[in-house]
Amino acid sequence: MDITVSGQQVDITPPLRDYAREKVGRIQRHFDHAITADVVLHVEKKRFSAEANIRAKGAVIHADAAGEDMYAAIDLLIDKLDRQVLRHKEKMTDPHRPG
């Protein structure tokens, strides 16, 4: 999976970039059809937020989250993405779903 980490009004340090890539890589554990992931980190005054788009076969999954610091925002983002990816995976593999 190709993971891109960028920032708006924030400098992305190597430890922050590695942390985000490691956490987004966790999504691939559940869903191996993911092709690319774009993570954007924002800072507005004292509000830290993170958003991500994951492109996979047949879907684009988007989530955003805000936290007390950047690491907390990334953790909340990954939790949301994880739930969405599992839900998408269930839809794709549900044998009772028509079509």
Quick overview:
The protein has 99 residues and is α+β, with helices and mostly antiparallel strands. The chain has helices at 14-25, 27-30, 70-93, and strands at residues 2-8, 34-44, 47-56, 59-67. Helix 1 (14-25) runs parallel beside helix 3 (70-93).
Describe the structure in your own words:
- It is a single chain.
- The longest helix has 24 residues, at 70-93.
- The protein has a four-stranded mixed beta sheet with strand order 1-2-3-4, with helices on one face.
- Helix 1 (14-25) packs parallel to helix 3 (70-93).
- It has a single domain (2-93), classed as Ribosome hibernation promotion factor-like (Double Stranded RNA Binding Domain).
- Helix content is 40%, strand content 37%.
- The protein is built from three helices and four strands.
CATH class: Alpha Beta
Order of helices and strands: EHHEEEH
Query: Poorly predicted ranges (pLDDT <50, ≥5 residues)?
Result: none
Which overall shape is indicated by the principal axes computed on the Cα atoms?
A: elongated
Radius of gyration: 14 Å
Query: N- to C-terminal separation?
Result: 28 Å
CATH architectural category:
2-Layer Sandwich
Strand order of the largest sheet: 1-2-3-4
Assembly annotation: single chain
Number of DSSP-assigned strands: 4
Q: Give the integer mean of the pLDDT values.
A: 87
Structural class: alpha+beta
Task: Classify the beta-strand content into a percent band.
Answer: 35-45%
Estimate nothing, just give the exact number of structural domains: 1
Enter the CATH topology name: Double Stranded RNA Binding Domain
Largest sheet: 4 strands, mixed
